[in-house]
From TrEMBL:
EC supergroup of this enzyme: transferase
Role this protein plays: S-adenosyl-L-methionine-dependent methyltransferase that specifically methylates the N(1) position of adenine in helix 25.1 in 25S rRNA. Required both for ribosomal 40S and 60S subunits biogenesis. Required for efficient pre-rRNA cleavage at site A2.
Primary localization class, coarse: nucleus
Protein name: Ribosomal RNA-processing protein 8
Pfam families: Methyltransf_8
Compositional bias segments (type: Basic and acidic residues): 32-52
Source species taxonomy: Eukaryota, Fungi, Dikarya, Basidiomycota, Agaricomycotina
Biological process terms in GO annotation: ribosomal large subunit biogenesis
Provenance organism: Marasmius oreades
One GO location term (cellular component): nucleolus
EC number: 2.1.1.-
Region (Disordered): 1-138
Length: 381
């Protein structure tokens, strides 16, 4: 008899060979006859059916044929699902227009906007400005720094050329390269910003107190800041430099012959010269080139008797300040005051005095003292 006897399952019976020994002595089980096995199969089927009926409450015989009936509610749900899965039917133009006119979109929930305080607004603006990679001028912070470095390098190069060449060569270079003059003064203005005070501002504040009829000659004027400030106040300012880029500047070499009247006197006796019209001559950081002493001689020629000579020069340029003062005095001036309070430059005030007439040979020896002012060299970066 098999271990599990299930209805419908059967295995073919293989013939059992009879052993030579007698059946009474064989220890093997004898297969039951066909009637007994069929009877047991019927009993097992009946027992299985009773177990299934007890668990489910239904007979297994009709379970395959019977179908569960659906309630009306389940039927409507199935129909709805089937309709949803189908595409929407196309509507006519009139129906769509009517629906769009009558139907309103669902109201959106209003968003509450919190008012920011003044400090918060300024903080947000500063953050946005810092995060903006492309500011209004079109340059990022990195590009601005690179541009300033390039401008500073070009300024130092031009500065070295101006101090280590005479005025004739410096003017030739600026005329050949029109951008050199502007680049130099842009770099110079940037350099002066790091100084405690600008000597040009010092001269403007002093000269603004002078009478309106005062005539001022600004030699090496740059962008003519003195004239821009004092001419609107009714004063006369004559501005001279290598190159003129505005209506205030007269283009000339200040170490050569200035286009102004004046003379150096007559041989045989001390004098102030003749034909002068200038009351004050200003050199604001403009004693440059290897022939700068010639500009001091020209200042004496154009100044009126007792006229003023005002000089502002970088403090580090003086190899011997007393010798510098002695040289200016030998041209025909007397020292009135000296101001060394500023750490970056020194201020001088001289007055024109009479002098003897000199020959060109005598002048060549006097004007050879170029070494009294060292070239203004900036550190290379």
């Amino acid at each position: 008899m098999p271990l599990f006897d299930v209805s419908g399952w059967s295995l073919p019976e293989a013939p059992i060979a009879e052993s030579p020994t007698s059946s009474s002595n064989s220890r093997k089980r004898k297969r039951p006859d066909s009637d007994a096995s069929s009877e047991k199969k019927i009993r097992s089927e009946v027992n299985l059916e009773k177990i299934v009926k007890t668990l489910t409450g239904k007979s297994t015989a009709g379970s395959k044929k019977q179908k569960t009936k659906k309630t009306p509610k389940q039927t409507s749900v199935d129909v709805r699902k089937k309709n949803i899965s189908l595409p929407m039917p196309l509507k006519g133009t009139s129906e769509r227009l009517t629906e769009s006119a009558t139907s309103l979109p669902p109201a959106k929930k209003a968003k509450t906007k919190h008012k920011e305080s003044g400090s918060q607004e300024s903080l947000v603006k500063s953050i946005k400005a810092a995060e903006d990679p492309q500011p209004k001028d079109g340059l990022t912070t990195l590009q601005k720094n690179m541009k300033q470095n390039l401008e500073g390098a070009r300024f130092r190069l031009i500065n070295e050329l101006l101090y280590k060449n005479d005025s004739i060569e410096a003017q030739r270079l600026m005329l050949e390269d029109p951008t050199m003059y502007n680049d130099y003064h842009v770099g110079f203005r940037h350099q002066v910003q790091s100084w405690p005070t600008n000597p040009v501002d010092h001269f403007i504040s002093i000269l603004a107190k002078y009478p309106k009829k005062t005539v001022i000659a600004d030699l090496g004027c740059g962008d003519a800041a003195i004239a821009r400030n004092l001419v609107p106040e009714g004063m006369s300012v004559l501005s001279f430099d290598f190159k003129s880029d505005n209506s205030f500047v007269i283009e000339t070499d200040i170490c050569g012959k200035l286009p102004l009247p004046g003379s150096e006197g007559i041989d045989g006796r001390p004098s102030h010269g003749e034909g002068h019209i200038v009351d004050v001559v200003v050199f604001s950081l403009s004693l440059m080139g290897t022939n700068w002493p010639k500009s001091i001689r020209e200042a004496w020629r154009i100044l009126k008797p007792d006229g003023e000579l005002r000089i502002a020069e970088v403090a580090s340029r003086f190899s011997d300040m007393n010798k510098f003062i002695a040289f200016i005095s030998s041209i025909g001036f007397r020292l009135i005051s000296k101001d060394q309070q500023n750490t970056h430059f020194t201020l001088f005030e001289f007055k024109k005095v009479t002098r003897k007439y000199r020959t060109e040979e005598e002048w060549s020896k006097i004007l050879a003292q170029v070494h009294l002012l060292k070239p203004c060299a900036y550190k290379r970066r």
